[in-house]
Amino acid sequence: MLNCREVTRLVSESQERKLSVVEKMSLNLHLMMCDGCKNFSLQVPFLRKAMKAYSERLDEVIDEPGTVTTPNKEGNDT
User: Fold this and answer.
1) Burial, 33: exposed, middle or buried (Cβ in 10 Å; 0-12, 13-18, 19+)?
2) Under 8 Å CB-to-CB from 1, ≥6 apart: which residues?
């Protein structure tokens, strides 16, 4: 059976690659018994999406190389 450290590693790796059947089964077994790891497994995809959205928004804010425009509260550039 996996320990919490191994589970967090697998959860993180699952964002980058497909886990094997054995890895998935071991992971799911642990997640059924460990609330901390289950919470972590739910937070990782959210954080990944949030960082992707932030990165995409940052790309939109940069007009030209070396020039950054700061959006105001209304979403308009200043």
Assistant:
1) exposed
2) 26, 29, 30
